[in-house]
Amino acid sequence: MTVRPSCPAVVTAAGHGTRFRPFTQYVPKEMLPIGTQPAVGHVITECLAAGADLVYVVTRPGDPIVPAYVADLRQQGMPVQAIPENLDHGYGNAAPLLTLAEQLAGCEVFMVAFGDDVLLGHPAGSDLSAMLTLATSGADAVIAAQLIDHEQIASFGVVEVTEPGGDRVSRIRQRPDPATVREPLAVVSRLVLRPAILRHLIPRPEASGEVDLGLAVGDQAAVTDVRVRRLTAHWVTVGDPRRYADALAHHLHGHEPTPQGLIGARTARTT
């Protein structure tokens, strides 16, 4: 009998990395290194440190590289599994959740993290763990955000809260006019969700027909208790060459935990 995880994490690693082509025609962007580990390795570490008991890594169909890396981690004893994305449900950043809908449907909560976005400069999993605490305390969903320069707002989804400095989300706006934004809180790809989100994952005209996770959480915020976590870590991405350079520079200032290093820590806690 298959044991269903009580708190899984979904790590998305199915992007095409168009801004890094031609490199990403051969190597997925999630495998770009930060230090001696690929970006997706840092994200897996973060999810496990936050309390995930199984990490599903959803990969691009036909990609042999990320699944091989995940298989190596699994051989070393890590609770991680690679699953190819099923595009029958449509395209978009929420397609990995629909791929795993059967596995997620019976969970109380689950984490979501994009494999090309890495949180540095803070204990691994600390922000996700705080988000998990918010969710298990009653929130229907928790989304991460970080303050960015006001002039960059037009490139991001933006979280709006019901009162200044509060954490109750009123709505999420996609690439708004910066002049209309009071607090430049950009959506970061870390979420703690309940299975109810699956009902909101539908193709949307405002997302060019794709299934968009931010819009779905925004729908939830209109009718349920959705909270925001203002990140304490430093958010970097390997999906953009300029911000990838920032990730490499930031990593030089401190050592980040590795998936292999976490194996010993998990073993120590369970023996």
Record keyword descriptors for this entry:
two-stranded antiparallel ribbon; disordered C terminus; 271 residues; 28% helix; 13 strands; alpha/beta; 7-stranded mixed beta sheet
Please describe what this structure looks like:
This protein is α/β, with parallel strands linked by helices and 271 residues long. The chain has a single domain, classed as Spore Coat Polysaccharide Biosynthesis Protein SpsA, Chain A. Helices cover 28% and strands 24% of the residues. It has a seven-stranded mixed β-sheet. Helix 1 crosses helix 5. The longest helix is centred in the N-terminal third of the chain and has 12 residues, at 39-50. The chain is globular. 45% of the residues are buried.
